[in-house]
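User: Hi! I have a protein structure encoded as tokens and I'd like to know what sequence might fold into it. I'm fairly new to this, so please keep things simple.
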């Protein structure tokens, strides 16, 4: 009763303050009022994201207890005479307000929030592992770390990962979900068998390659535009026990990329003849030691970057990062297999840094860095990240223009700059995800934090301007990059981004979310209920 009263009061306030034309009974008849929060702390957390660059003003936050709760709310928005927007929020780790909405309701899909505990709402569904079929069914808001914990109880694990596990299943499947395993297994969207999805009309549908396949492909990489994923069936493999984690250094870019491309070309070989993970990063200054992923270079593995002469090469060094999984059964052969692979590479002699660790610790490595940064107050800062897919044929031009040009050697890097290649044949062209038109393309991820430490080159303005210059450089040089986790402000830019996939994307939107209710924070389609709103977040 108290919850109903609070909600009623909140709706009346919205009617007065934003001129909302909403019949309060529309929301009160849904049967979700106990889980629809208007608590200021809850609204505040749903109005921000990891990027820290935008802010929204949602009316309310739904903590769903089931897929039916999600369906009821979306159906109410769809059927409502005046309409309101609905944004699924996974763990809010977007950069540019993609999971936000103003004048609408945020559905908090991930289950770890304090508000959920206060309201006494448990996890909608616990992960269910099907050992025989080697897959797991999980709630769309489940965090990957919890998916891993559940499957490990059966000695199993998903095949394809992101570098950081505190992201939701629905959030990464709405983009692609990539890491060093993608060259071999494809992105996470290539490792899903089935989904339950609430469309923009409020229908709860099951879809797969066989059934409702258009919905299935639309939603994978679909930036939340076509439906809210409430369940995903994820492919599993036997979980490795241990990981040998190796880093080697290069000063020559073409040798570095040649070796990376060679390693990912081995994807069809038997497990013993390829690495399990291939990534890499650029070191544009001596900041490697301060880099948030560099705990690897421990006192056991001392490295003096300054002792390596990179000056003749524009002052930039490159680090190849690979891993090989092993367990009790192949512990005898791991040295031999790794040596056989390393002898084929042309890194700088005596720059091999190795560490052995449990598989879980390797997968969860970025969380350790997060805890360190949090303890120094460096986690909740603005993150003007830029992620690009660069075609293989132009990666050397990108290196010259960006790593050795725009970024130069004078800047301090306040975050890692990843660079690693992937095989396009591991991506399903039928999904909504967009990649360059070449068999091999690189992820270049500039994962920098803006700091207020008196160094002009680390400020938000400076880094944002650099991002713009990088995009301008690519445009001027005719390098057909595609943004990963894209962010644009006009529909023309979105058309250009999707290229030949735009017509299909548009058509799917018409069919699956005709009132443009969902994920308006992506700024692709203007919501029909609030067409004049300047702010879509
Ligand atoms: P949110 O930010 O909450 O949502 C993202 C989008 O998906 C929004 O549009 C939202 O409306 C929509 N959405 C959320 N849940 C659902 C759902 N259930 N159904 C439909 N739509 C939904 N990405 C990689 O690929 N590889 C990495 O290695 C990687 N590392 C990262 C490390 C860090 C520290 C951070 C902050 C991000 C990283 N990312 C990585 C990016 C990350 O995958 C995306 O930002 C992802 O969207 C975040 O997931 P989330 O659960 O926080 O989604």
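Assistant: Happy to help. Inverse folding works backwards from shape to sequence: for each of the 537 positions I chose a residue that suits the local structure. Here it is:
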């Amino acid at each position: 009763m108290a919850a109903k009263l609070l909600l009623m009061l909140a709706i009346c306030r919205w009617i007065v303050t934003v001129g909302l034309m909403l019949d309060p009974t529309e929301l009160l008849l849904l049967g979700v009022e106990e889980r629809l929060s208007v608590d200021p702390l809850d609204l505040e957390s749903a109005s921000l994201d990891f990027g820290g660059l935008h802010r929204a003003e949602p009316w309310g936050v739904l903590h769903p207890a089931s897929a039916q709760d999600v369906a009821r709310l979306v159906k109410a928005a769809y059927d409502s005479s005046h309409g309101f927007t609905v944004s699924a929020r996974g763990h809010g780790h977007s950069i540019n307000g993609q999971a936000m909405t103003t004048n609408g309701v945020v559905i908090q899909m991930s289950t770890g929030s304090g508000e959920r505990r206060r309201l006494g709402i448990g996890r909608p569904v616990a992960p269910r592992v099907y050992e025989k079929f080697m897959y797991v069914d999980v709630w769309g808001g489940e965090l990957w770390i919890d998916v891993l914990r559940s499957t490990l109880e059966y000695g199993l694990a998903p095949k394809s990962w992101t570098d950081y596990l505190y992201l939701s299943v629905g959030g990464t499947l709405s983009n692609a979900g990539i890491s060093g395993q993608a060259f071999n297994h494809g992105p996470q969207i290539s490792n899903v068998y089935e989904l339950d999805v609430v469309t923009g009309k409020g229908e709860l549908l099951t879809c797969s390659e066989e059934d409702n396949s258009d919905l299935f492909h639309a939603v994978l990489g679909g930036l939340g535009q076509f439906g809210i994923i409430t369940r995903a069936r994820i492919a599993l493999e036997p979980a490795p026990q241990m990981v040998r984690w190796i880093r080697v250094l290069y000063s020559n870019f073409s040798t570095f990329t040649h070796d990376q491309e060679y390693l990912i070309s081995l994807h069809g070989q038997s497990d013993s003849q390829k690495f399990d993970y291939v990534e890499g990063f650029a070191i544009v200054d001596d900041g490697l030691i301060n880099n948030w992923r560099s705990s690897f270079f421990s006192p056991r593995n001392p490295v003096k970057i300054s002792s390596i002469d990179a000056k003749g090469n524009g002052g930039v060094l490159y680090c190849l990062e690979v891993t090989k999984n092993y367990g009790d059964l192949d512990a005898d052969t791991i040295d031999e297999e790794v040596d056989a692979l390393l002898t084929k590479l042309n890194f700088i002699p005596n720059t091999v840094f190795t560490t052995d660790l449990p598989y879980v610790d390797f997968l969860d490595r970025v969380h350790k860095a997060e805890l360190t940064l949090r303890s120094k107050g460096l986690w909740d800062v603005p993150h003007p990240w830029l992620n690009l897919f660069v075609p293989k044929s132009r990666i050397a031009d990108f290196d010259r223009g960006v790593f050795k040009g725009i970024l130069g050697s004078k800047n301090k890097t306040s975050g890692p700059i990843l660079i690693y290649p992937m095989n396009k044949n591991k991506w399903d062209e039928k999904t909504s995800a967009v990649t360059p038109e070449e068999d091999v393309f690189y992820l270049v991820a500039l994962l920098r934090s803006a700091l207020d430490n008196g160094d002009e080159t680390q400020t938000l303005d400076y880094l944002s301007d650099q991002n713009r210059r990088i995009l301008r450089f690519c445009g001027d040089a005719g390098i057909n990059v595609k943004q990963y986790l894209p962010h644009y402000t006009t529909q023309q830019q979105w058309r250009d981004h999707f290229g030949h996939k735009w017509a299909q994307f548009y058509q799917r939107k018409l069919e699956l979310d005709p009132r443009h209710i969902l994920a308006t924070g992506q700024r692709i389609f203007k919501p029909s209920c609030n067409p004049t709103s300047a702010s879509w977040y």
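A useful reference point when you look it over: The two ends are 31 Å apart (CA to CA). Feel free to ask if any position seems puzzling.
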